[in-house]
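Comment thread on ticket #2218

A.B. wrote:
> Attaching the input chain for the structure job we discussed in standup.
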Amino acid sequence: MKRASYNAFSLVEVTLALGIAAFCLIAVFGLIPVGVQTNRNAASQTAATNITASVIADMRATTSSISPQYRITFGAPKTLYFDGAGQVTTSLGPNSRYRAGITFPSSPVGLSYADVKVTWPAPVDPAAGTPSGSVEMFAAFDRN
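C.D. wrote:
> Ran it. Output below, let me know if you need it in another format.
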């Protein structure tokens, strides 16, 4: 009489495989909060860079001493506030997410320099506290 042979995993092998799989899953689940935070920081930095580019483009399009979109007067520092959708206000509001500070360092005759610094969250004044993040751009304008 011929005996039937069965191939199967032992209980020890199944337990080890489940332990290794659980260890890997715990490691992957531990990385999820880091990925979410990195994504949030990248989105905030991208939005701040877009705000900076928009402010500088507005100043470059200026033919007079006051910019058309953001009403920035060349030579006079100004602070603007932006919400998450990019809408601008001149005062800090409940929906303000970004603070744009525009300053004008001294420059030679015929040239204007602007330092545009966007920080977030908006309620944190960079002169008095440390914001979560910031983007800064320095631009030169030929005003001849």
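A.B. wrote:
> Thanks. Noting for the ticket: The chain is about 35% helix and 25% strand.
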